[in-house]
Amino acid sequence: MASSHLDQPRHDKRLLQRAWFLSRTVIAVTLYILSWIIKTPFDTSPLLSHFTAPPLLRWDVFHFSQIAVKGYVYEHDFAFFPGTPAVMRLAAEFGLGLGRLLELTTRYDVNEKDVILGGSIAAFVFCDWTSDMYE
Length: 135
Description:
This protein is mainly α and 135 residues long. Helix content is 64%, strand content 0%. Helix 2 (59-70) packs across helix 4 and helix 3 packs across helix 4 (112-126).
């Protein structure tokens, strides 16, 4: 009987993590679907991208991705701290290395799509503050 009482916080935390994952997944899928249904974007920055960008991306993503790929090239790039572009670049390098290891790609150079995908995955994986707030 005492062990079930001690396991309750662990069970609650697991339940909270599952709810966090499910809620983020539902929100992401809903936003993605709605962004394709609503054709008039309130932010036209995806239209200015070098590639076909999903309409969910906003202006800061393009600045971060450009910094992650090419470094601080333009004066306005210095308005952004290096942490986010560095995490995006590291996640992209890891993903590209994993892709080469699994023989899915032979590329070695990271491009803008790679760092945007890497940043998205890193944000999804590392931004779980709900369990920290629970404790």
